[in-house]
Amino acid sequence: MNLKDIAVRYDLTSLDIFITVAEERNLTRVGRMKHLAVSAISKRVSELESQIGAPLLVRNARGVELTPAGQSLLFYARQVRQTLAQLDHELGDYASGVKGHLRIHAITSALSQFLPQDIADFVSLYPQIKFDIEERVGSAVIRAVADGRADLGIIASQTPAEGLEAIPYRNDELTLVVPTDHALASRKSVRFEEVLKHEFVGPHLESSMHTLLTAEADKLGMALKLRIRISSFDCMCRMVSAGLGVAVLPRSVINQYLRSHKLKAVTLEEPWARRALQLVVKRYDTASSTLKTLIDNLKLADA
Q1: CB of 102 closer than 8 Å to CB of 132
Q2: DSSP conformation class of 221
Q3: Closest by alpha carbon to 243, among 263, 229, 259?
Q4: DSSP-assigned beta bridge partners for residue 171
Q5: What is the signed CA dihedral for 203, 206, 212, 213, rounded to 10 degrees?
Q6: CATH topology for the 3-95 domain
Q7: pTM given for the model
Q8: Which residue ranges does the chain devote to CATH 3.40.190.10?
Q9: CB-neighbour burial class of residue 28 (10 A; exposed 0-12, middle 13-18, buried 19+)
């Protein structure tokens, strides 16, 4: 049983009545709530049982209890009701003048550096667009766009697009961050090979940053010495400040923490430290006009 089957096969009024019966466990009380005779309630439940081919309720002296089939139907019926409520809400937005609703999944680097201002600039031009924006690691962003949970994704170029259309967005610079009293703090620049001798405060294992750092360490025949893994850039900087390791982070992100956390940014002498961020979409040419307009604006943001 799934949502599609329920939506096609079952009467929505009957499902709503069944949910109330399942929650109240008393047909007489449900009849009063729905302004229906108990016989009408029983008829609705019986029709559902005939469609499913299994009993949904067990009657007893105190009321009714759900059978295993009834528990399963309740779970999916509630999902149908929730989905329909969301549908009504979004369509109501259109009626009140909202012209679009876009879902964006993005990696932390994009959300921490560029996306807030770019979205603010876009909204100033198109104030009737609504957004759902979620922070995800690169591989999760790809999956969300591929299966339709996100309209647009933002990833680092090191993450394979897996058949999605990739569009250049922004560039950032990865830099080493260390405590001000660290052995590397006096350096203006450093090679990654030297950095690998130290313990790291690193990002989540599925993040594009972790994939990049691990791959570059492998090329040097060395291992990334991860002491701590944590997803928040702010928390990574705090951990570095506490002397728990070094980190590699986007320069524009760590600039705000250098003075307050007593940190030093050291340039990485590596070509891969200049990193490209990309927009990913199923297909630009089949995207909605609202999504195309957003993509076109984001492409121009770094021009």
Answers
A1: yes
A2: T
A3: 263
A4: 276
A5: 40
A6: Arc Repressor Mutant, subunit A (1.10.10)
A7: 0.62
A8: 100-169+276-300, 173-275
A9: exposed
pLDDT in tens, 14-52: 899 999 999 999 999 999 998 989 899 999 999 999 988
> Which residue's structure tokens are 């008393």?
26
Q: How confident is the model at residue 6 (pLDDT cuts 50, 70, 90)?
A: low
Please tell me the distance from the alpha carbon of residue 254 to that of residue 187, in angstroms, as a whole number. Answer: 17
Q: Write out pLDDT tens, residues 234-276.
A: 899 999 999 999 999 998 888 888 988 999 999 999 999 998 9
- pLDDT over threshold 90, residue 218: yes
Burial 43-55 (b: 16+ CB within 10 A, else e): ebbeebbeebeee
Whether the CB-CB separation of 185 and 176 falls below 8 Å is answered with: no
Per DSSP, the three-state class of 149 is coil
User: 221 is written with which tokens?
Assistant: 């025949």
CATH code, 100-169+276-300: 3.40.190.10
Q: Which amino acid is at 85?
A: A
The number of beta carbons lying within 10 Å of the beta carbon of residue 116 is 12
Q: How far is CA 146 from the centre of its chain?
A: 13
Nearest C-alpha neighbor of 275 from the set 136, 157, 191: 157
Which element (helix H / strand E) includes 125?
helix 115-125
Is the CB of residue 66 less than 8 Å from the CB of residue 77? no
CB 208 within 8 A of CB 249: no
Token pair in block for residue 136: 């995800």
